[in-house]
């Protein structure tokens, strides 16, 4: 019996079949003929780029790795007829006022969260702390070459989406929403390095470089105070690592008067000594 799709990423066209790449409780990744990954998701998950939400709670009973899955308007394994297309493209709406509110709320929220993932690693690994500070200097004034820093970060950490990759997604989200001047440089630098990470994370970062993000991240840009907990609770440390990336980008977007204050808050939330 076909699974009923409730909504799907607006860029997807139905009538395609892929092979099951991997299956988890809440997500089934399909490798499509063009090399993209589509992801079938359970009903409570935030819609991801190339995602299809279906009306079930556990996908492990429905799909087997290596088998073919058809996403069709009628029939097939995933019935897409009648599902609502939803855009996962970020529409930048940042300005100085909402950046100030976002930065303040993010700093306070992070300070109250457990120090794990990349924030814990920053305290324990001097090499990572050095790369972090060099990366924020590059964001601030373009100092140095960002490519070696990205090589260090991409694929760094454990899991389907390593902490370094989640961190970069958070950086890209804030840079795009508030139109950071080095966004286009970062978007060009990341894709050639993605073979260093997992298939799923490669897809996630590739979408972020094209301005596409999961719905919980898009919602965070619209109403941050309401949505910080939803992002923080995503995955084992993925959500918190994304928030750490957002904090890094926020810390360099202010005029000089406010910048030092926000940097102090962000560095304190990371457990690092603030810059002098």
List the helices and strands and how they pair.
Layout (H helix, E strand, L loop, with lengths): L2 E7 L6 E8 L3 E5 L5 E5 L9 E4 L13 E5 L5 E2 L4 E3 L9 H16 L5 H8 L1 H16 L4 H8 L9 H15 L5 H7 L9 H11 L5 H8 L1 H9 L5 H13 L5 H15 L6
Parallel strand pairs: 1-7, 1-8, 4-5, 6-7
Antiparallel strand pairs: 1-5, 2-3, 2-6, 3-4
Helix pairs in contact: 1-10, 1-11, 2-3, 3-4, 5-7, 5-10, 8-9, 9-10, 10-11
Low-confidence blocks of residues: 255-265
Tell me the Rg in angstroms.
19 Å
Q: Treating each run of at least 4 consecutive H or I residues as one helix, how many helices? A: 11
Mean pLDDT: 89
* Main β-sheet, spatial strand arrangement: 1-5-4-3-2-6-7
Distance separating the two termini: 63 Å
Helix content: 40-55%
Shape: globular
What's the story with the biggest beta sheet?
Answer: 7 strands, mixed, barrel
Find the count of extended strands (DSSP E, 2+ residues). 8
Tell me the strand percentage band. Answer: 5-15%
Order of helices and strands: EEEEEEEEHHHHHHHHHHH
Structural class of the helices, strands and pairings?
A: alpha/beta
């Amino acid at each position: 019996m076909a699974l009923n799709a409730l909504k799907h990423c607006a860029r997807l066209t139905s009538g395609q079949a892929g092979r099951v790449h991997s299956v988890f409780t809440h997500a089934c990744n399909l490798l499509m003929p063009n090399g993209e990954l589509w992801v079938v998701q359970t009903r409570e998950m935030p819609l991801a780029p190339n995602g299809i939400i279906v009306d079930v709670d556990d996908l492990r009973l429905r799909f087997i790795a290596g088998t073919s899955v058809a996403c069709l308007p009628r029939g097939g394994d995933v019935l897409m007829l009648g599902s609502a297309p939803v855009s996962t493209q970020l529409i930048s709406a940042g300005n100085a006022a909402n950046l100030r509110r976002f930065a303040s709320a993010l700093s306070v929220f992070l300070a109250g969260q457990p120090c794990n993932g990349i924030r814990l690693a920053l305290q324990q690994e001097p090499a990572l702390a050095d790369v972090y500070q060099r990366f924020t200097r590059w964001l601030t004034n373009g100092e140095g070459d960002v490519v070696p820093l990205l090589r260090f970060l991409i694929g760094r950490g454990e899991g389907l989406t390593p902490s370094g990759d989640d961190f970069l997604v958070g950086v890209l989200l804030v840079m795009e929403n508030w139109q950071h001047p080095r966004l286009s440089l970062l978007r060009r630098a990341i894709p050639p390095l993605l073979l260093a990470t997992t298939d799923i994370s490669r897809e996630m970062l590739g979408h972020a470089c094209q301005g596409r993000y999961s719905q919980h991240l898009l919602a965070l840009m619209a109403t941050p105070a309401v949505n910080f907990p939803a992002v923080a609770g995503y995955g084992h440390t993925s959500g918190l690592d994304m928030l750490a990336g957002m904090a890094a980008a926020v810390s360099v977007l202010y005029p000089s008067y406010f910048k030092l204050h926000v940097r102090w808050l962000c560095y304190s939330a990371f457990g690092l000594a603030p810059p002098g």
